[in-house]
Specification:
Elements (H helix, E strand, L loop, with lengths): L3 E9 L2 E10 L4 H13 L5 H4 L7 E4 L3 H10 L4 E4 L1 H13 L7 H16 L3 H13 L1 H5 L1 H12 L1 H4 L16 H14 L3
Parallel strand pairs: 3-4
Antiparallel strand pairs: 1-2
Helix pairs in contact: 1-3, 4-5, 5-6
Bound molecules: 2-acetamido-2-deoxy-beta-D-glucopyranose (NAG).
């Protein structure tokens, strides 16, 4: 039927716990928002620890613009985070993209620069890592990477683990359990 499926899960002591499923005919922002609004309309008042239609305190997604904007639109008071695994994976793909002309020997080093920033323990350490990166000889060699890193750093609220304190992520900084839930759906339900 060429439908798209969006699984909403939360972490729990027993792993990924399903909260909702949205089946759509497109991945546009408006369509996803319409699906989220339908879901919102059936939430009981005590959903999300009494937040009800305000929705969850935090959501974590891959870096999908339509999905993030739809969530923002329907749940404006929700903090939106990116899965750090996908942030690092996106950087790895960026480094391997031949358009960016990064020599093979430099890719791991340049990835590690971002990885360090993702896992830095404090906002001060994060700032220091960034300023140190801008002076790094390998970074100075690659203007495109430097620009890209600057753009990624501007979004640090979405991925830096040290900026997540106070949010109930409870150590869940990736959404990889969604991948396994997706696989169960494809294998066991769709027999693909
Ligand atoms: C994710 O959260 C659940 C419960 O909130 C917890 O049991 C689990 O250990 C966390 N996972 C990680 C990787 O910290």
């Amino acid at each position: 039927m060429n439908s798209r499926i969006f699984l909403l899960l939360t972490h729990s002591a027993a792993g990924g716990l399903p909260l909702g499923v949205i089946v759509t005919t497109s991945e546009s922002q408006n369509t996803i928002a319409a699906g989220l609004k339908l879901l919102q309309s059936i939430l009981p008042g005590d959903a999300f620890y009494g937040r009800g239609v305000l929705g969850p305190k935090v959501v974590m997604t891959d870096d999908c613009k339509a999905l993030r904007q739809a969530l923002q639109n329907v749940f404006p008071q929700t903090t939106s985070l990116l899965c750090v695994f996908h942030v690092l994976q996106a950087m790895w793909r960026w480094l391997w993209d031949s358009h960016h002309g990064v020599p093979k020997g430099d890719r791991q080093w340049l990835l590690d620069i971002l990885k360090k920033m993702v896992y830095d323990m404090s906002p001060e350490e994060l700032e220091a890592s960034y300023h140190q990166a801008l002076q790094d000889p390998a970074v100075l060699k690659h203007q495109q990477y430097r620009d890209h890193l600057t753009a990624v750093f501007a979004q640090r609220k979405d991925w830096a683990i040290c900026l997540r304190t106070g949010l109930p992520t409870r150590g869940n900084d990736t959404n990889n359990f969604v991948e396994s839930a997706m696989r169960v759906l494809k294998d066991s339900i769709f027999h693909r």
